[in-house]
């Protein structure tokens, strides 16, 4: 059972769930039509229910909702549905943060302004399925607002979807992507090669760096030590891997387990010399 706080539009309602004491947004075709604040309503068949999280802890849900046009809340809800078709489960807590970003992205697009995202190619590789859902999101944004958002904005929406599938916040995922991008650049510079981002070996290297950063943040290690083998067989690759580990350590402000050096070096060797695989 719900008590309506505010009817956002014909397709969306902000309501207070009486059983849990939580404020939630309900989305569904026509569910707001004829409804009024303080009115009590039961469960609505087919309606999507979203738990709410605001960007600012001190900001009330009503304040956050009032600051976003209902159409962008609907768009965010539809994008979450698209992501759920791919992943099965996506946290509904990303609804308002993603709606807020989409509102700004659409405004920029309609004003012919762009917010550059230099890590879009890396995001596309690291979070391929999330990017696929975000591309569908671009179509939904165009359909509902007429705004044509850029690939870079699609990259940012991808990070919101990723946040809905993990414990990683959007800002943290973007920071990890930046660290990976710079780590790859360090390796390319060391060996005088430019790695094709869509190659299997490079994709594996980027994924390894991503999970290496995640392990480092959690204070975990691989418990597999290839260091002696690597420095005996491929000393230059080992040195390059060690440099990247020290860089990651500096950026994350956490120690990188020594076992990560050899493990990373194996992935680097696969990229620089595929014949050694």
How would you characterize this protein structure?
- The protein is of the alpha+beta class and 277 residues long.
- The chain has 3 domains: 1-51, Roll (Transcription Regulation, Sacy, Chain A); 57-166, PRD domain (PTS-regulatory domain, PRD, Orthogonal Bundle); 171-276, Orthogonal Bundle (PTS-regulatory domain, PRD).
- Helix content is 57%, strand content 9%.
- It has helices at 61-66, 70-87, 95-110, 120-126, 128-145, 151-163, 170-191, 200-218, 227-233, 235-252, 259-272; strands spanning 2-9, 12-17, 22-27, 40-41, 48-51.
- A hairpin with a 4-residue loop joins strand 2 (12-17) and strand 3 (22-27).
- The longest helix is centred in the middle third of the chain and has 22 residues, at 170-191.
- The model has no long low-confidence stretch (mean pLDDT 93).
Short description:
This protein is 57% helix and 9% strand. With 277 residues, it is an alpha+beta fold.
Major sheet: 5 strands, antiparallel
Distance between the termini: 60 Å
CATH topology of the largest domain, by name, is: PTS-regulatory domain, PRD
Number of helices: 11
Structural class: alpha+beta
CATH superfamily of the largest domain: PRD domain
| CA radius of gyration | 22 Å
The parts where pLDDT drops under 50 for at least 5 residues are none
What is the CATH C level class of the largest domain, in words? Mainly Alpha
Tally of discrete structural domains: 3
- H/E series: EEEEEHHHHHHHHHHH
Count all strands and give the number: 5
| Average predicted confidence as pLDDT | 93
Q: What is the CATH architecture descriptor of the largest domain? A: Orthogonal Bundle
Strand content: 5-15%
- Tell me the overall shape: elongated
